[in-house]
Amino acid sequence: MNRNVSGSGMTSQRTRARMIERLREQGIRDERVLAAIAAVPRHVFVEEALASRAYEDTALPLGFSQTISQPFIVARMIEVLCDGRELGKTLEIGAGCGYQAAVLAQLTDEVYAVERIELLLAKAKLNLRAIQQFKVRLKYADGQLGLPEAAPFDTIIVAAAAARVPRALLQQLAPNGRLILPLGAASQQLVLIERRAEGFVETRLDAVRFVPLLSGVE
Q1: Is-catalytic flag, 65?
Q2: Cα–Cα distances in angstroms (integers) from residue 189 to residues 3, 156, 184, 204, in the given order
């Protein structure tokens, strides 16, 4: 990989700083989340031809009909999960290129990430190795089934839109845990689910647009 992994060049530093300032303007307030995003060189995780656009607030194609989420959406989802608590043991469904997992790994020492597309998982492994991020445990598996061998999880974040909340993910959520995912098809909305003593409590948040959560592996 011949891209500047450290992001130490003045251009990269300036574009990253502008991204963080833009996130503040868009309403992201948690300084832990902003610092985590600032620490991860997003240009490493996108196709080399798109590296110049890495710090724009836009989703970018990864191939395999998948995208890397726009920085605001990554920040928004993680900020909701962090509100008033630590992430604890975290499961990401839809590892993609590994970017969001790398951000999560700045905030907790236990990050598990599942990806159903084998070639994309291989790319995520290379990307995480390139930035010397070894805390993320990657698994090739059907994300709708979660990761039962490592459950329960304090935090679950889903990077693809489901028609309904997968039952396996609810079952793998620890007491007082939080799960965030986009729900819907043509019209999608971020939904936060908290596992409380009285049961699962659902809060509907922003309108979003994600690729669909598919079953099986490929």
Answers
A1: no
A2: 35, 16, 7, 7
Q: How far is CA 90 from CA 8, 105, 174, in A?
A: 29, 9, 10
Averaged pLDDT of the chain: 93
Residue 89: strand, helix, or coil: coil
Assigned token pair, 125 = 């492994």
Task: Say what the pLDDT of residue 65 is.
Answer: 84
pLDDT cut 90: percent of the chain above it = 87
pLDDT in tens, 94-109: 999 999 999 999 999 9
This prediction's pTM: 0.93
Catalytic residue among 6, 52, 65, 69: 69
Cα separation, 95 vs 83, in Å, equals 22
d(Cα 46, Cα 31) in Å, to the nearest integer? 25
